Amino acid sequence: MLCKRTYKNQITLPKKVMEKFEGVEYFQAEVQEGKIVLDPVQITSASESVLGQVRRKAAALGLTDKDVEDAVAWSRKK
Question: How far is CA 53 from CA 45, 61, 63, in A?
Fold first, then answer.
């Protein structure tokens, strides 16, 4: 299938191609051996990420921002 690059360097992917990636919004673009390769990427929100899990755990333990600052300061003293 033919795709054309616009003057803004954008490429529209054909509908038949995108139908195979239902629900995918983001792709990682790379150049491999002179070809453009797109890999689907699943973006997770901060609440679903590892950072979100850490924040929920800290909240459940009753840790405050001050507690974290004190812990960082303590660890940097050594």
Answer: 11, 12, 14
Beta strands 35-41 and 26-32, pairing class: antiparallel
The pLDDT tens digits for 2-23 are 999 999 999 999 999 999 999 8
The rounded distance, in Å, linking the Cα atoms of 68 and 53 is 16
Please name which of 6, 15, 45, 13 lies closest in space to residue 29, comparing C-alpha atoms. 13
The Cα–Cα gap between 48 and 59 comes to 15
Average confidence (pLDDT) over 18-43: 94
